[in-house]
Amino acid sequence: MTNIKIHDKIFEPNIKFAEIDLATDRIAQKINSDLKGKTPIFLVILNGSFMFAGDLLKKITLPCEVSFVKLASYEGTKSTEKVRQLIGFDEDITGRSVIIIEDIVDSGITMENVLKQLESMGAADVRIATLLFKPAAFKKSYRIDYIGIEIPNDFIVGYGLDYDGQGRNLKDIYKIVK
Description:
10 strands
């Protein structure tokens, strides 16, 4: 793996797909065990989590449903700390087990908004599965049930994550060179 350029920024290799795949296996095994006998609904947060969700759901052996919501909170390399809902969630989740699939939890603001919405819709229980977690950036107190990889507070691209719309298609994850 070598450095790449996206727009005006240089990114260096950070996490290889093999490590991502192992983390995804661990999360899937735990979900399959924890929710045995249930039929959960997976709520995929777009756009960033599409690759993680696709790989994770292939490893889920439970009967399940999948739905999507599209949210936005980033401009360039910075979070706006305001969450815009671009495509809404309209499933009936009353009494259901919901697992949110997210690519990355950093400040936690986006996820907090999603959790409040799902609780108001009557979900029996809501769990969070994230590929990446930035503990140094996390500003909230809710529990994250399934964490693939903890990372430092670096700006990253690849495997679904983008910089101004580009880089999502990269198989591996890259971090910005300061």
